Amino acid sequence: MKWTLAQLRKFHDEVIKFDESLELENLTDRKDILSVESLNVKGEIFVRSRQFNAQIYIDAIINMLDSRTSEDIQVPLQIESLEIFDETVHEDDDLDENVHPVIHTLDLEPVIRELIIVNLPNAYTTSDEPLGSGKDWEVIDEDEFAHESGEKTDPRLEKLKALLDSDEEKED
After folding, report:
1. CA 112 to CA 106: how far, in whole Å?
2. pLDDT tens, residue by residue, 48-100
3. pLDDT tens across 10-54, in order?
4. Cβ 38 vs Cβ 19: under 8 Å
5. d(CA 77, CA 109)
């Protein structure tokens, strides 16, 4: 998904449409991301004199580990973005996140890679079951906790509890 500026200038004030399937290796260094199974990118590039506006639509299926069970699962992603490539800006300029400098070629792959990484969930699970227990622990609700603990007060706070109780009696 690369075009030279000479190729793009042939289409001044026109729209270039694209629809391609890509394969991305080593998407990110996250250990829970296994691979990109299906990646389809389509969109349009509107060519102006020194600026190129790319409307990008990404459909992808990401193989990753389930956050709870560590099983392989497939996570669907649908991303839409407008990216602007401009010949008049430089790398060190303070830019909007959607404006990219372009020198000799317009390459969409790094932008597509970044869009996928930014839109990946930090944790994802297909399980609807609430996490209930593990080795030497289990999840209980607050009422169970209060009943089991018997509302014990920290011995260091006994005097404060006594003050609270005396204040409540004065209000009655």
Report:
1. 12
2. 888 889 999 999 998 888 877 778 888 899 999 999 888 887 766 666 677 88
3. 888 888 899 999 888 877 778 888 888 889 999 999 988 888 899
4. no
5. 17
Contact criterion met (CB below 8 Å) for 59 and 40: yes
From residue 164, alpha-carbon distances to 90, 149, 150, 152, 169 in Å are: 65, 20, 18, 15, 9
pLDDT in tens, 89-128: 776 666 667 788 888 888 889 899 899 988 988 777 776 6
Kind and range of the H or E run holding 157: none
Question: If you search the block for the tokens 């079951």, which residue do you land on?
Answer: 129
Write a three-state SS string for 69-122. CCCEEEEEEEEEEEEEEECCCCCCCCCCCCEEECCCEEECHHHHHHHHHHHCCC
- For residue 82, the model assigns a pLDDT of 92
Q: Report the relative pairing of strands 99-101 and 105-107 from DSSP bridges.
A: unpaired
Locus of tokens 């001044």: 12
Q: Which two tokens stand for residue 56?
A: 């990008």
- CA distances to 1, 5, 14, 43 from 9, rounded to whole Å, are 16, 6, 9, 18
d(CA 17, CA 11): 11
